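Record type: monomer structure entry
Structure origin: computed from sequence
Chain ID: A
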Amino acid sequence: MNTTKKLGLLGGMSWESTVSYYQAINRGVNARLGGLHSAPLIISSVDFAHIEQLQHKGEWDKTADILIREAKHLETAGAKAILICTNTMHKVAADIEQKITIPLIHIADATGCVLQQDRVKKVGLLGTRFTMEQTFYTSRLKEIFGIEVVTPNAQQRDTVHNIIYEQLCKGVICVESRNAYIDIINELAAEGAEGIILGCTEIALLVQQHHTKVKLYDTTAIHASAAVDFALAP
């Protein structure tokens, strides 16, 4: 009998990467259970336009209020754990955790575990400007997992950030943007990064492992795998 736990996904940030979560979790469950098995999922997909405006205004408390409301709805609907399907909005993960009684599977923790297993001590990070420049993500990797995080320079951070919001969140894939990312990845590797965290859930839509010899850590895939582990645990 299938006893897979039901997961609640806070998605839509952007919906392009939420599609990847849906596929990865379902494929992960099916790979373990076989047959026609799939994952019991509840998705709350928010309007990213509103979230994005609040992000760039620095009104993170208002973004937290939106996601707390949706997380409560998911819990009421029967979710046994919550995933925030975006790296950036883990800035308010602690606020959400305080308002729900079920686990929140943290994307940085899932990524840190994989980095630790690979014995990575220094890693590069690509993501939104918020993820790269603020401490909610990098400090967690340092304090919990002992991993040093390096980020691109200011001009490169602008490039990475703008490509995410102006292209990837809209499903636009440009070779020129991929090449720009690869150049930045190579520079971080030259600075001693043993791998690169694709720390925005849309980046894997643009850059995959076959594009570079530098080890990539796709946070969407890692987070989804952690979710499958939780869902199938006894």
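Annotation 1: The two ends are 12 Å apart (CA to CA).
Annotation 2: The longest strand covers residues 7-11.
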